[in-house]
C-alpha cells in the first residue's frame, strides 16, 4: 500500500517495503492544500488475465501451460487486454513496467501498447503511457448493473455514518473477486481502493465474507491450494486449518474481519450480499487505517454492515432467513437517513 499526501506536487520517499506491499511517505510543501495523507495499495504485480493461479497450478481460468484452452480465444487480443488492465492507477507506465506487470516480452508489450494507442485508449507521454478518457465510455454500462444501482444509496449512507472507505465487491470467476464501486473516506488519512481491482478469496474483508458462505467445493479448492496463494502482507493467512477455523467464525457471526491481511495498515469488516437463491453473489466492506479502527470500532461496524448487506440483498430478491432470527436488532436506515434517527 502507499501512504502519502494527496497533493500531486509532493515528492515521495519509500519507508517500508515488505510482504508484497509498500508504504511511501509523501511530504507536501503545498501551503494551500496543507497535509492530506492517503493510504493506498500499490498496483498489483499481476493483473488482468495474468492470474497468480497460473504460477500455482499451471493454469489460469481456462489456460493450460500459459495458453488459453478454448480454440475460440484470440491470443493476441488477450495480450492486448492484459496490457490495458495493467493500468490500475493514474500514474504513467513505461514499456518495461508494463512488461513486468503482464509477464510479456518488451516486443509484445510494444505492439500491444501501439495498438491501444492507435485505438485511442492510451496516450504517449514523456514519462510513459497513460489511459485516456476514452476508457470512461464503459462506465455507464457498469453503473447500470442492477447490484450497483441498488447498493450505491446504501453504501453512501454507510460511508456517511462511518466516515471510512466503503467498497462493493462481486465474485468474479471461481475463486476471485473484483471491486465494482468504492466510496473513499473524507479523512486526510484513509484507505484507497481501486475500481476493477482483482483479488483472491482468501484475504480481505469482503472476499473472506463471501468465501465463508460459498459452496463447500469452492472452499475445499481454496483451502487445498492455499499455501500457494499470494501473501499480500505478512498477516495474510496461508495455513488451511487456521483459515478454515476463521471461516467458521465468520459464518457464526455473519461478517468477516480483515486485520492487515490484505492491506498493511488497514482494518475493516465485510458481509456478503445474497441473491434470490440465498447464494452470496457480492459483498460490501468498510475499512480504515489501524490507528483509527480499534477493536471497539470493528465490533460496532460488524452488526451494522450485516444489516446493510441484508437490506441490499432484500432489494435484490433475497427471501431472507426463514428460520434464524436477525443477527442485529437495530434497524438499518433507508439511504439518506442517519443511524439512530
UniProtKB/TrEMBL annotation:
SMART domains: HTH_ICLR (SM00346). One of its GO terms (molecular function) is DNA binding. Residues 134-318 form the IclR-ED domain. It holds the Pfam family IclR_C. PROSITE patterns: ICLR_ED. Keywords: DNA-binding, Transcription, Transcription regulation. It comes from the Bacteria. Residues 318-341 are annotated as: Disordered. The keyword Transcription regulation applies. GO terms for biological process: negative regulation of DNA-templated transcription. The keyword Thylakoid does not apply. PANTHER family: HELIX-TURN-HELIX TRANSCRIPTIONAL REGULATOR, ICLR FAMILY, HTH-TYPE TRANSCRIPTIONAL REPRESSOR ALLR. This is IclR family transcriptional regulator. It comes from Sulfobacillus acidophilus. The lineage of its organism: Bacteria, Bacillati, Bacillota, Clostridia, Eubacteriales.
Amino acid at each position: 500500500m502507499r501512504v502519502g499526501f494527496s497533493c500531486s506536487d509532493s515528492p515521495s520517499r519509500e519507508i517500508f517495503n515488505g510482504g508484497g506491499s509498500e508504504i511511501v511517505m509523501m511530504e507536501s510543501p503545498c501551503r494551500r492544500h496543507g497535509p492530506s495523507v492517503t493510504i493506498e495499495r500499490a498496483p498489483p504485480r499481476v493483473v488482468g488475465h495474468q492470474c497468480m493461479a497460473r504460477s500455482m497450478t499451471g493454469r489460469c481460468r481456462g489456460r493450460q501451460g500459459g495458453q488459453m484452452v478454448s480454440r475460440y480465444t484470440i491470443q493476441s487480443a488477450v495480450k492486448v487486454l492484459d496490457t490495458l488492465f495493467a493500468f490500475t492507477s493514474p500514474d504513467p507506465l513505461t514499456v518495461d513496467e508494463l512488461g513486468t506487470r503482464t509477464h510479456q516480452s518488451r516486443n509484445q508489450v510494444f505492439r500491444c501498447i501501439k495498438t491501444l494507442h492507435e485505438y485511442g485508449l492510451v496516450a504517449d507521454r514523456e514519462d510513459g503511457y497513460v489511459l485516456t478518457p476514452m476508457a470512461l465510455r464503459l462506465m455507464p454500462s457498469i453503473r447500470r448493473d442492477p447490484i450497483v444501482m441498488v447498493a450505491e444509496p446504501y453504501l453512501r449512507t454507510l460511508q456517511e455514518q462511518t466516515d471510512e472507505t466503503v467498497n462493493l465487491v462481486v465474485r468474479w470467476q471461481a475463486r476471485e473477486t473484483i471491486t465494482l464501486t468504492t466510496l473513499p473516506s473524507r479523512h486526510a488519512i484513509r484507505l484507497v481502493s481501486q475500481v476493477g481491482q482483482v483479488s483472491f478469496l482468501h484475504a480481505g474483508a469482503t472476499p473472506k465474507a463471501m468465501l465463508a458462505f460459498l459452496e463447500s467445493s469452492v472452499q475445499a479448492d481454496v483451502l487445498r491450494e492455499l499455501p500457494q496463494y499470494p501473501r499480500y502482507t505478512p498477516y495474510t493467512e496461508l495455513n488451511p486449518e487456521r483459515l478454515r477455523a476463521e471461516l467458521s467464525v465468520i459464518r457464526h457471526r455473519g461478517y468477516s474481519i480483515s486485520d492487515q491481511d490484505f492491506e498493511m495498515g488497514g482494518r475493516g469488516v465485510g458481509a456478503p450480499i445474497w441473491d434470490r437463491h440465498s447464494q452470496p453473489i457480492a459483498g460490501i466492506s468498510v475499512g480504515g487505517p489501524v490507528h483509527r479502527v480499534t477493536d471497539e470500532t470493528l465490533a460496532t461496524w460488524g452488526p451494522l454492515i450485516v444489516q446493510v448487506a441484508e437490506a441490499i440483498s432484500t432489494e435484490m430478491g433475497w427471501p431472507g432467513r426463514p428460520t434464524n432470527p436477525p443477527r442485529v436488532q437495530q434497524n438499518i436506515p433507508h439511504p439518506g437517513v442517519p443511524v439512530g434517527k
